[in-house]
Every structure is written in structure tokens, then in C-alpha cells.
Amino acid sequence: MTATDPTTIPAGRVALVTGASRGIGAEIATELLAAGYRVAGTSRSGRAPDGVLGVSADITDPEQVEAAFARVEEELGGVEVLVANAGITRDMLLMRMSDDDWDGVLATNLTGTFRMVRRATRRMMRARFGRIVLMSSVSAYVGSPGQVNYSASKAGLIGMARSVARELGGRGITCNVVAPGFISTDMTDELSDEVKDDYLARIPAKRFGETRDVAHAVRFLCSDAAGYVTGAVLPVDGGLGMGR
Ligand SMILES: NC(=O)c1ccc[n+]([C@@H]2O[C@H](COP(=O)([O-])OP(=O)(O)OC[C@H]3O[C@@H](n4cnc5c(N)ncnc54)[C@H](OP(=O)(O)O)[C@@H]3O)[C@@H](O)[C@H]2O)c1
Known about the structure:
It is a single chain. The protein is of the alpha/beta class. It has a single domain, classed as NAD(P)-binding Rossmann-like Domain (Rossmann fold). Helices cover 43% and strands 15% of the residues. It is built from eight helices and seven strands, in the order βαββαβαβααβαααβ. The protein has a seven-stranded parallel beta sheet with strand order 3-2-1-4-5-6-7, with helices on both faces. Helix 3 links the parallel strand 4 (81-84) and strand 5. The chain is globular, with a radius of gyration of 17 Å. The mean pLDDT is 96. NADP nicotinamide-adenine-dinucleotide phosphate (NAP) is lined by residues 18-25, 43-45, 58-60, 85-88, 108, 112, 135, 137, 180, 182-183, 185-188. The site of NADP nicotinamide-adenine-dinucleotide phosphate (NAP) has 29 residues, from helix 1, helix 3 and helix 6.
């Protein structure tokens, strides 16, 4: 008897990944495509990996979010899996952080994600099936100097996910959080060598994460194999934030 891979998906399931134009989101979209999903990827630029339906949508704009869902539903079908990955940083020490820095990060990372989740669950509830994964960060629970706005937004996602898990668990919908540590992408390329060295010294795995490390965790949480996992926070951080 040959064992089947439980993280491979019944053909044709539709997944939408936000922030799929580069970095972690592009890797997740590619991973889900390889697992057998039909995948749409949104971002402001609308770029997406080969084979992924690229849709331009700024998640801070309710009309663009609605239009993106309409396009995905028309071209691929109703969204059964949502990976809310889009996020930004605007780092600044607290005393110098402007209201704009705060509002901008919260508007994208927290409110934008809320908007995507609310829209996606409409159909998931009718279908009595859904997988939602929210992209948080180790900064949500260990904190990070210069990232008061970012850490607050990412901690908010944990509360959001657990509330969604409680509200919709009876409808076959799971909602989980992935909390990456330091992953090599454009977002972390911006950091100084000093900050990078400090992280490396604190990571038990003694390496930075790769985008595929995160994509593998997301693939599992989206799969049928993870049907009894909900409201969980899965760190993908080489041990950086363990114990919290
Ligand atoms: N890299 C890390 O070490 C790390 C660690 C912990 C958590 N994370 C989280 O993982 C996620 C992905 O990070 P990354 O490193 O891959 O970042 P990235 O390379 O900067 O990519 C961010 C993605 O989000 C999209 N995006 C940004 N603002 C958007 C908006 N308003 N509407 C729609 N799309 C938007 C970007 O596309 P456009 O610019 O085209 O819109 C891009 O596709 C983020 O939520 C980040 O906070 C990353």
C-alpha cells in the first residue's frame, strides 16, 4: 500500500494569497500551486509567480478588495483558502513615531487583513469549509524596539484569529496564525548588518529562515490534514521566540 501525502489537496481547491508579488507570499503561492490548488495572488502591483492569477488590489481600500474577490470568483471560483500575508513595516523609535507611521501599518497589517477575512468567510460559511492563515510575526509576542506599530498590528492578528476560530469553528472553518522569525526577504534586507548579527546570535537554529520554511508550514495549515488545528500560533523562527 502506498501512503498518500495528506498535505496534497483535492484537485481544484481555490486559494487566495495576499502579498504574493514577492517574498514569503510569492513562495506560499508557488507552494500551494504545487500542492494542487488553483491560486490567486493579490498585491498592489498585481505581480504574481507563473501559474498564479495575479490580481492588483490594495488591501487598505475596501472597493479594491471587493473587486479582487469578484475577479477571483469569476476566474477561479469561490475562495476556500485565504492566506492573509500582506504586511508592511515603518520602523521608528516610539518617541519619533508619527501618527501616520502608526496608522499606515495598522491600516495594512490589521484592518486590511480583517477586511480580507470578513469577505472570504462569507462564502466559506455557506460552503461549510474554509482554511484561513494569518501572517503574524515573532515580534507580536517578544516585542521589537522600533516596531511598536508593527508588533501591535501583528499581536492583533492573534486575537483576531482566535476570535474567528471560536466564531466559525462549527462551520468547518479553521483560522490559524503563522509567526515567522527572521526570514530573508526584501523586508529584512533593509536592516543594518548590526541588527542582522544581533538576530543571528539569538536564533537557536543559527541561520536565517528561508521563504520556503514559512511556505511549508502554511501548506500544512491549509490542508485537510490540519482540519483539527484551529486558533493555533505556529512559530517558524528557528527557535527565536520559543517559550512564549
Ligand atoms: N521577512 C520576515 O523576516 C518576516 C518576519 C515575520 C513576519 N513577516 C511577515 O510576512 C509577510 C510577508 O513579508 P515579506 O518579508 O515577504 O515582505 P515583502 O517582501 O515586503 O512583501 C510584502 C508583500 O505585501 C504586499 N503588500 C504590501 N502592502 C500591501 C497593500 N496595502 N495591499 C496589498 N498588498 C500589499 C507587497 O506587494 P506590493 O508592494 O506590490 O503591494 C508584497 O507582495 C508580512 O506580513 C510580514 O510582516 C515577515
